[in-house]
Amino acid sequence: MIDLKNINKYYHTGDEELHVLKDVNLHIESGELVAIIGPSGSGKSTLINLLGFIDKKFDGSYLFEGESLVASSDDRLSKIRNKTVGFVFQNFSLIENNTVYENVELPLLYNGYGMNQTKEKVMSILEKVGLKGKEKNYPKQLSGGQQQRVAIARALVNSPKFIIADEPTGALDTKTSEDIMQLFVDLNKEAGVTVIIVTHNPELLVYCSREITIRDGEIIVDRELI
After folding, report:
1. What is the DSSP letter of 63?
2. All domains in the chain, ordered by first residue
3. What letter does residue 99 receive in the DSSP assignment?
4. pLDDT tens per residue, range 171-185
5. Cα–Cα distance, 148 to 140 (Å, whole number)
6. DSSP strand pairing (33-37 vs 210-215)
7. Sign of CA dihedral 9, 12, 13, 18
8. What pLDDT score was predicted for residue 13?
């Protein structure tokens, strides 16, 4: 599904050139549950911006399902991103003044659905993530774990090809973190959702089928875990 070939990424600040991704080669199959792990400053964020079609200024090639999207216009890339990638963030990134239902519905409305077409999909996905009955609540009325479930539901509602979860348990306690990671495992196994977990926490590796360790912009480990 995803093929990165000889990816190099540079940032320029004044006369200084910073080489943040160095000859990265990576293949991710549909249906995998992958952990991209590394310390702060290792290049993880740069890599996921590239994987999620946010950053297209790099050297090398990125093929998604055999097609290079680098030459696409920003508008087309935005539409592809909305249909293809679901993002889950550490801080949930929910709209506080919107209900749970409205937060999850939003990507569908961006995708051209009418408001009368969204109810079945939204309610189905809320049930799948264990939030049936919470659709009228506001984020501040929910626990951290429930808010992260809303974020996961929002990421899933468009049936994306893959999910990027950036430190998805970073703001959660141990028990809630285990529940959220188990939800990713269940979605991966039962619904076939491809999940890319980005983390600095090695404890999350037990939930994943593959470890990709990045350090100083280079992939130093790429191994199957199961």
Report:
1. E
2. 29-57+74-224 (3.40.50.300)
3. -
4. 999 999 999 999 999
5. 12
6. parallel
7. positive
8. 87
Give CA–CA dist 207/196, Å, rounded: 12
DSSP string for residues in 8-37: EEEEEETTEEEEEEEEEEEEE-TT-EEEEE
Kindly give the pairing relationship between strand 194-199 and strand 33-37: parallel
> d(Cα 193, Cα 184) in Å, to the nearest integer?
9
Q: Report the C-alpha gap between 29 and 212 in whole angstroms.
A: 13
Which 3 state secondary structure label does DSSP give 137?
Answer: coil
Residues of the chain with pLDDT under 70: none
Measured between alpha carbons, how far is 154 from 180 in angstroms, rounded to an integer?
Answer: 14
Name the residue among 37, 17, 27 with its Cα closest to residue 202: 37
173: helix, strand or coil? coil
Cα–Cα distances (Å) from 100 to 12, 55, 156, in that order, read 41, 29, 14
Task: Return the pLDDT at 70.
Answer: 82
| Alpha carbons 100 and 50: distance in angstroms, whole number | 29
Give the sign of the dihedral formed by CA 136, CA 140, CA 145, CA 148.
positive
pTM tops 0.90, yes or no: yes
Span 8-18, pLDDT tens digits: 999 998 889 99
Instruction: Give the other-Cβ count within 10 Å of 211's Cβ.
Output: 17
Residue 94, Ramachandran bin (φ over 0: left; ψ between -120 and 50: alpha; else beta): beta
Rounded Cα–Cα distance for residues 112 and 12 (Å): 38
